[in-house]
Every structure is written in C-alpha cells, then in structure tokens.
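Ticket #4471: complex job returned nothing on first submit. Input attached below:
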Amino acid sequence: MRNKALAIALLLTCSPAMALPVSFGPMAGDSAEADIASSLVDLPERTESALIDLDGDGKGEILLRMPDDCAAADPGSCRTVVMRFTAGQWRVVFDRNVAELETGEAGFAGVVGLVADRMPWEWDTSAGRYMIDTAAAGEPVALSLAPAEYVELLAYQFGEGALNLFRKNDQTSVHIGGVNLDGSAAGQVLARFQGPGVCGRVMGCPIRVLSVVDGQYATLLEGSGIGDITVLPVSRGGWSDLVADLPGGGFAVYGWDGERYGVVEVVPGVLK
Amino acid sequence: MRKTVLVAALMAGTFLPAVPAHAAFADFMAATCGANCADPIGERSSAEQNWQALQDMGTTQFIGSQLDGRTIDVSSLLAAARVIGTTELDRWLRTGNISSGFSLDKVTEALGVTGIDMGLRGADVSRVLGGMSGIPGADVSNVIASSWELPGLPTTGGGFADVGTGGAYCDQAVDSIINASAQAYVNSVVEAAESDMGFSQVGGMSPNADSHSESGLFGGSCLDIFMTGDKDTLFKPPQLGQLVSMMSQMFGAEAQGSCAGAPTVHEQVAGSFPMGAFSPGNGGFFPGMEYSGGESTPSLHKGNNYGLPNAAPPSTRSSGFAGLL
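Support reply: We reran it on our side without changes. The output follows.
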C-alpha cells in the first residue's frame, strides 16, 4: 500500500525516457524515492538519483548512482541501480558499476533499454530484470561443428579430461568459429567444448581462443560461456574485448592483458 | 482398481527415485541452487550428466582426497562440477589451472558442500548413486575401492595399471614422489604466483603437453598425504622426518585407507628418496633445484601424477586454420 502510494507520487514527478545520458541529481534523504530505495539496498550517505519512466506505464523508475561506491580500479565506475515497480512491488532490475549510463531505444514489452558503458542492456521479461544484449554489443562469432580431422586436437585444448570425455561420449562436440581479434592476417579460432556434463550451470561451457604458434596451438583465452560470444568494438593493446553470455542472464568480459586474455568482469546470472 | 494401484506402484518404482534418494538430492539442490531453485528438473538432469562425465574422466578418483583441509566427497565434487562443468573441474584438480579468480572462488565455495548424506555406507557403494539421485550407471565400486580400499596393490615398479581395475594408485604416487611431483608442484605454485588478473594458466596446451603444469592441486595422489596443513597458495615443504613418519603410517603395519596393505611400498621407497632434495641447507624443494640427475636429465613424468591413464594426445599438428574453418 505504501509502495503504491509512493509510486503514484513518483508518477507525478518522473520524466519520459529518451535516448540521452541519464542525469543524476542529489537525492534528498526524506524523499519518496529514498524511502523506497533504502528498503531494497543499503544507501551510502551520498546517493544521487533520477526518476525516469522506462516502461511507459506512467510510473517512474528509480535510478540511483552511488559516487562513494566505485570500483577500486576505475574510480569513475560507480554502483548504479535501477528499481522498477512491477507485480505490485519495487524490485532491483539493474545493479552494477557503471561510468556512463544512457537510456536506449524501447525494446521488448516497450521497456526502454539501457546503455551502460556502451554495452546495451535490454529488458528480459522472463528474468524480470535488465540483461546485457551481448549480440547487439558487437559482432557475434558464428560457431559451427569442428571438422572431424581436427576435433580431437581441439578437444585436447580443453584438457586431458576433455579429450578422454570426448573419446568416451559421442554426444560431446567442439564448435569453432574464426575470429580476428588483433587485425592480423592469420586470425584466431574461437572454440567451445560442449555436451552432457561439460557445461557448468553457473559458468557455462568452456571456451578457448587459439592461435597457431610454431605449428601448434597456443591458448590465448580460457573462459566459459553459453549462447553468444561477441567481439566487442573496444580493444586493449590492439586486441578486441570479448563478451560471453553466462547462464541465467550473466556475462563475462574478457580483455587482452598484453600476453593473453583475462577476465575483466564477471556478472553472474540469476539461477535461484 | 487394485490393478490400477499396482500399475501405479510399479510405474513409481520404475520411473521415480526412492524417497530417500529424493530427500538426499533435495538437500544437495538446496545447498547448491537454493531452497527455491528455479529449475529443479534441470538441476537433477545436470547432476546425472555430470556424474557420468566425472566417471568417464576418472575425476571421481579425487573423492576422499583432502583439499584445503576438507575432504572431497560425492556432494562436493558434484557441487563444484555444477559451477564450472566437469572438464574444467577435472583440469583444475589435475593441474591447478582455472580460467578466472571468479571461477576459483565459486568452485572453492562449492567444494564446501560436503557431508550431504548421499547414502554412502562403508563399502556398500551400490547405494552411493542409487541413494543419491537416481543417477544411472551407478557402479562406482571401482571409484570407491581405488580411493579407500585399494585391493591388490602392486608393489613392483614399472607400468601403471588403470585405476578402477585394481590398479597401482599408490605405486604411481610413490613413483611420482621419487621423480618430480614436488618440484612440479612448486612450479605450479610459481606459475600461479606469477600470474595476474586472477588466472594462472600461461600459454596453451600443445599436443605434446609441454607447455602446461602437470602437477595439479595434489601433486600426486598419495603425495597429498605427506603435505601437512592446508595446501593453499603458500607451499610448506615437507620435512624428511615428517615424511618418514607419515610413510610409516601410510604404508607400514598400521596403514589405513587407500594405502593399506602395502608395506612393501614403504620398503620400496625407503632407499630411493632423493636425499639431496631434503638437505637442511635448502630447507625443502626449490624450482630448478637439481636432483635425480639434475635438470639436464629430467625424469619428470609428462603424464598426470594420480595413476590415471593418460589420454594419448592427438598426434596431428596444426599447420594453420586453412583447413579448420
């Protein structure tokens, strides 16, 4: 009841979403949004807020930015939370460290997407929250079944156990796709091992980025993911970032560290 | 009417797990996915597939091993497999390599899901799976036997039989000790210490497996028994006195567990320790340290250190991606 009343109050003050950077302002401690927000997250002393109608239902969504809760490695990337009033109550539908947040285009169910640090996030009705749209963020890698003559060698790149399993279970497979992450002529191979028991329900299926060095494979990336694996239009040291979907709507971003790829960020999916 | 009831009962017996099994898996699922798990059917199916894969790879041999002061059991192994999948779990247990610090944290957390009653009752291993989750192919007698009640332990050197066929589990470990498990373990710790961004694997795995650590988290199946305390990132070199004492317990007349009934292994090893490696001046193992003929004539096993049969690496060398894509 109290939430409904507050929602109605917010209805009077929110602004419609436009494809613009979100402009945050200081949030008054005695405001309606502060009351709602504090019931869902621990608010630091300094919290900024914005009220934007993201779903076009006439009720304002609450957007929060916490300038005192920022990433150690990137002080400009601070915790940003979006709360939406759905199914009779306020819920946190987006929560991550962001340097720049923009509203995007209206997407599924008419809910406006978010663009967080140039990464598009779309509303996912089944999950009831924003999910990153990895495919839209860059160039998804097209994967196909590895040719039979190479598949054992490729399976071995996932470990001795993987090769053993591949030889024992004909339902396991290696899917590969060509990528060019550094602009070189040779390019690289992205490979994913999959099959019964291969993939974790939290981290997904093992993936590798391989290059050929002296006639042998060299592993440039060890990671995991399901669904799309996307080459992002941003790079580090001349090597493009990659992002892989994780089960439950999460994702992992991989970046070049000068020698190989490492995990830049993991946002686990919601599985429970 | 009675016929209907009978048919229903038979169908229940055929398609549904026994009540205790359901209860046991419910505990497992609550511990891993939560009490209100969104996909209980998927979780169960995944656990069944994971168990089969772990068996196929021989990863189940790690059941009974100690890691960070905790004993790996069926539930913890399955919980860890649930996080990163079976092949990545197998690789981590064998080599210590994992793709990210995030995965490591999650797997370590999952390994804490221990002690869930999976129906284990002594040597009655037929209940392990039947009582756990109705996982098909429930013959894990070899797994359990090789971990806890190794029968017919050969004490002669030479080739290593497969685990699961009454193989040379401890003999392999002893051989690993004699050769280079400890040094390989140190090497892996150094690799991990030198890594950044939260991952430890450097480079890839070439077909001849020369470019990655072989030592694993345990550095040799029975070797972990020698390692006192937690095997965290800080490696504590064993002292010779400890080793001899522990060997006596491990292989001597009072031996228990997987290495029981193998007193001759103790005798076999007693005269063949690389004593130079334990010189007081050095204080333990160090990378690059010479023993067993020094680095110029390494006797390191290029296979695993656990008595598991090595996968024969594919012989094909990649000459590029022209034919691959």
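Chain A has two domains: 2-132, 139-267. Closing as resolved unless it happens again.
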